[in-house]
């Protein structure tokens, strides 16, 4: 990332919300469920699958957490009604983890049960390291209760992840593997770009060795090549794995992956709590300074 872009990442919280909103609009389907439905319909039409995320990590009360769980019920209904090919992704903080483990568990269980009623699947996103243990515990508890339509996310950035794979292996979890967006302390996380890549490749092979279904979630072409080589060498069929990307990130690369015959799932967030998610996406955009400058000039130029 260029120096100016890096400097701007640090200043992002000071950028006015309307600017953040405009420059991050490519990453979010919109505020309403209808927006997500429209975007997923388009993605399906392009041969892509989706996973819908109801944005909500800024929630502050148990009622708001329950409302997010309720919105997921509406999402499943809409997906069935519209015959769309999409599962959902949930954040444990949006379901109330910071307000209480039991509250979150109750909400998560309700979402997973609604998904099961409609033959759908729930991916539990992984958030910052303060939530890793609780998130894995919630996942284990759901599996122990017999819920099979639920999957987890592991982050290559965390040094613990290979050990987590070994500990989870007997459950043969359905895993999304990503680098991990949260910047964690050096004691628990790799900070070096190549070390994260190496970890990603190691974890990916460890998951495949354990017989897991993996959603390889990255826009990093080096890692995508590594994954494609693994698929080939292991003789995996189209249904045995998937690639995953974020809405609004490297869409041309996505088109290419679909053309090559891979199953590709696009992470599609919607909702009114868009700010925290938008900041994280902008923080990773290598051309963020240019986008913000262009937006500011556009506004002043009116
Ligand atoms: C489907 C999906 C689900 C995810 N779920 C989680 C999760 O649950 N928990 C979690 O911690 N993280 C999650 N992430 C985020 C992930 O951890 C990374 O932060 C993010 O994907 C960027 O890493 P990368 O592997 O694409 O590699 P990078 O090296 O960061 O990016 C590779 C290239 O992609 C492009 N790019 C990446 N991000 C952007 C952007 N925002 N705007 C424009 N271009 C960009 C750039 O060209 C960059 O050079 C998820 C990512 C995906 C794709």
Quick overview of this protein structure:
With 302 residues, this protein is an alpha/beta fold. Helices cover 50% and strands 14% of the residues. Helix 5 (101-117) links the parallel strand 2 and strand 3.
Brief descriptors of the model:
binds flavin-adenine dinucleotide; 8 strands; eight-stranded parallel β-barrel; single chain; alpha/beta; 12 helices; 50% helix; 302 residues
Question: For the largest beta sheet, what order do the strands appear in spatially?
Answer: 1-2-3-4-5-6-7-8
Query: What is the general shape?
Result: globular
Euclidean distance between termini CA atoms: 30 Å
Q: Poorly predicted ranges (pLDDT <50, ≥5 residues)?
A: none
Our count of helices gives 12
Secondary-structure content class: alpha/beta
- Helix content range: 40-55%
User: What does the main sheet amount to?
Assistant: 8 strands, parallel, barrel
Q: Quick one: how many beta strands? A: 8
Bin the strand percentage: 5-15%
- H and E order: HHHEHEHEHEHEHEHEHEHH
Query: Averaging pLDDT over every residue, what do you get?
Result: 94
| Small molecules bound in the structure, each named once | flavin-adenine dinucleotide
């Amino acid at each position: 990332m260029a120096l100016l872009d890096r400097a701007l990442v640090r200043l992002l919280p000071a950028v006015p919300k309307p600017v953040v909103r405009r420059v991050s609009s490519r990453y979010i389907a919109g505020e309403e469920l209808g927006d997500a439905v429209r975007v997923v319909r388009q993605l399906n039409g392009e041969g892509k699958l989706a996973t819908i995320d109801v944005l909500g990590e800024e929630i502050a009360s148990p009622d708001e957490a329950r409302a997010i769980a309720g919105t997921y019920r509406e999402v499943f209904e809409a997906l069935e009604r519209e015959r769309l090919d999409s599962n959902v992704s949930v954040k444990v903080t949006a379901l109330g983890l910071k307000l209480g483990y039991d509250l979150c568990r109750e909400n998560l269980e309700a979402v997973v049960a609604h998904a099961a009623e409609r033959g759908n699947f729930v991916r539990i996103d992984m958030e910052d390291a303060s939530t890793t243990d609780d998130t894995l515990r919630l996942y284990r508890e759901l599996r122990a209760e017999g819920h099979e339509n639920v999957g987890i996310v592991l982050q290559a950035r965390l040094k613990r992840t290979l050990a987590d794979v070994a500990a989870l292996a007997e459950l043969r979890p359905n895993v999304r593997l990503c680098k991990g967006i949260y910047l964690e302390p050096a004691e628990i996380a790799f900070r070096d770009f190549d070390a994260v890549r190496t970890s990603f490749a190691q974890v990916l092979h460890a998951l495949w060795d354990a017989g897991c279904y993996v959603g390889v979630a990255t826009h990093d072409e080096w890692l995508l090549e590594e994954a494609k080589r693994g698929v080939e060498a292991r003789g995996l069929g189209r249904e045995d794995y998937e690639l995953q990307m974020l809405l609004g990130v490297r869409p041309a690369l996505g088109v290419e992956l679909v053309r090559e015959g891979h199953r590709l799932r696009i992470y599609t967030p919607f909702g009114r709590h868009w700010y925290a998610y938008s900041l994280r996406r902008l923080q990773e955009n290598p051309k963020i300074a240019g986008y913000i400058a262009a937006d500011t000039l556009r506004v002043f130029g009116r």
